[in-house]
Design a protein that fits this description.
By secondary structure, the chain is mainly alpha-helical. The chain is built from eight helices and four strands; from the N terminus they run H-H-H-H-E-H-E-H-H-E-H-E. This is Haloacid dehalogenase.
Length: 166
Amino acid sequence: NRKALLQQFERYEREVQQEHPEMLYANVLATAYTRLAQKLGTDEDAQAAEVLGKSVGKWPAFPDTVAATQGLGKHYKLIPLSNVDRESFQRTLDGPLAGCNFDAIYTAQDIGSYKPDIRNFHYLLEHVKEDFEVEKAQLLHVAQSLYHDHVPAKKVELTSVWVDRK
């Protein structure tokens, strides 16, 4: 069923991210797609894998995301800690998040690892201090993923808010 298929894909995505933390997210998606196709015994479609890898900028934003981001941006510094590469994030900014402005964007490509790797959170803390003179106690990490965001945020004692999208 669809849920089981998505869970298998997510498992391969995590596996690829751990094996190749330097790999661009578009390639992570394509590789995970290929591994899932192999597991299912279907033909590996290199073109479909590439299309999936480049699809990030086409993923729709949640209905409340743009307005919330624009509103919060009037009062707070907004700094995504993203598990994608810069090009994919830019496609998202040009597409579903058009009109949203961020003070900085820290990507897995910049850091050289993917969340939930604790290095991503150390990078965040170090750079917001250097770039904005903001201390950990002044940060609020807002995210949906318990696995990718909230568990490692807790490890570095970063206050976080869970956005439950399910």
